[in-house]
Specification:
about 450 residues; alpha+beta; 5-stranded mixed β-sheet; 4-stranded antiparallel β-sheet; about 20% strand
Length: about 450
């Protein structure tokens, strides 16, 4: 039903319907004008015949001669086509019919004993002649039949044309929809982070769609190049600075051992160690994020029971949650939930979400990890009852190194959710941030492994 609704709303079909409606309107007006002209011509011909008939009766020398002539011609005439009536001066009616009038209009009756009324439409001409009244009426049957002829012409010519045009429009709409779906699928992949996606241009594509697809591919190629360069620079910087930072950490540790007897120097050295450790975590996270986004961990994919990963990660964080005053719970079914993936990365992804919830929610908050199925997909959720994230910033927190204003004074480096999104994308999952009322709910949908 949805597919048909999209087809009916497509531009090619709408254009076809508009053109068919325009063509049908023009055809109807043309046929109506032709019918009016033809009808008028037929009526003029009948009136001319009536005038000619009347002229013939006027040539008779007397009323008696007119009566005899009307009687003679009426016996040979078909009442369904020609009615002759002459009311002589003495009131006697000659011919094959008589005209009477009542509230319903004029009527023509037979002069036979049954006095039956003639059916059909007639054009008549009445005139006084030799003290009597003569009436000549000719049937409009040919004009009436003309309506059926034009209706048949309309059905034979217009109806098949409309059906063929609508069928062609429907075919073009379905074809156009397939082309639009190809472009839409490529755009969906691009917007979800797959900058390597391209629009596959078919040989039967129209020039405008070929141009649009080419421009989209050109744009995606430029963005892929730019993002690749940016990731390469980020990875190179992180890789080049990792070794110097490790050396600095060793030097600071050596310095801390030497100044252990000086409280002020020891405190300052401890702060330096914390900062160096934080920078090391940042560069390690950047390197890991670059590896995940490059897709290299896919070589380690295996069948993973996501429910077991959830159990182990929650067990690891139970003590930390209890010591910080948080309530950490696990909600999953007994059924195994298997998928193809990297066990370590999935565990890290879940660990990052739990760490974020512990770090950014006050003591007493509830943190729930749940795993279930919905429409043949595995749905992993991590929800909390903290302050949540404003709607206008939910997309921004997925960016690298972005932090909320209220979180700038808490530990962290703004890469946790970026890594979560990268790991989910590596496993073909979609991450959405939703309101938990109160708090935040992070929802991930994975494609389950079929048995």
């Amino acid at each position: 039903m949805t597919r048909l609704r999209h087809i009916w709303r497509s531009m090619p079909l709408r254009l076809a319907i508009m053109l068919v409606a325009l063509f049908a309107t023009v055809s109807l007006l043309s046929l109506a004008a032709s019918y009016a002209v033809t009808q008028s011509s037929f009526e003029e011909t009948i009136r001319a015949d009536l005038q000619q008939d009347l002229a013939g009766f006027r040539a008779a020398p007397s009323a008696r001669a007119v009566a005899q002539l009307v009687e003679a011609e009426s016996r040979a005439a078909d009442p369904g086509r020609l009615i002759l009536s002459y009311i002589a001066p003495d009131g006697r009616i000659y011919g094959n019919g008589a005209i009477a009038q009542d509230e319903g209009g004029f009527h023509i009756f037979s002069l036979n004993p049954d006095r039956a009324e003639f059916a059909g439409e007639y054009l008549s001409l009445t005139n006084a002649l030799y003290g009597g009244v003569i009436t000549i009426a000719r049937s409009r049957a040919e004009i009436v039949a003309l309506r059926g002829v034009f209706v048949n012409i309309l059905l034979i010519s217009l109806l098949p044309t409309v059906l063929i045009a609508l069928s062609g429009g429907l075919i073009l709409a379905r074809r156009s929809k397939r082309h639009v779906e190809v472009v839409g699928a490529a755009l969906d992949k691009m917007t979800s982070g797959d900058l390597g996606a391209r629009v596959t241009i078919g040989p039967r594509w129209s020039d405008d769609l070929v141009q649009i697809g080419g421009k989209l591919n050109q744009m995606a190629g430029a963005q892929e190049t730019q993002m690749g360069a940016l990731r390469s620079v980020t990875s190179d910087i992180a890789h080049d600075l990792r070794t110097p930072l490790q050396r600095v950490a060793l030097y600071v540790q050596d310095l801390a051992d030497r100044v252990a007897d000086d409280p002020d120097a020891a405190m300052l050295t401890h702060k330096v160690q914390g900062e160096v450790e934080g920078m090391t975590h940042v560069f390690h996270a950047l390197l890991q994020l670059a590896q995940v986004e490059a897709g290299s961990p896919k070589a380690r994919f295996e069948t993973v029971d996501l429910s077991q990963v959830c159990r182990k990660v929650v067990e690891v964080f139970e003590d930390s949650a209890a010591s910080s005053g948080h309530v950490l719970t696990l909600d999953l079914s007994a059924k195994a939930h298997r998928l193809q993936g990297d066990r370590a990365l999935l565990g890290q992804m879940l660990s990052n979400l739990i760490e974020n919830a512990l770090r950014h929610t006050p003591a007493g908050s509830e943190i729930t990890v749940s795993l279930g199925e919905w429409e043949q997909a595995l749905v992993l959720e991590v929800s909390d009852t903290g302050a949540g994230i404003p709607v206008d910033e939910r997309d921004k927190v997925m960016q690298r190194l972005y932090r909320l204003d209220r979180s700038r004074h808490t530990p962290g480096h703004g890469l946790g959710l970026s890594l979560v999104q990268a790991v989910a994308a590596l496993h073909g999952a979609q991450v959405t941030l939703q309101d938990n009322a109160p708090g935040l709910r992070v929802v991930m949908q994975f494609k389950a492994e079929t048995e």
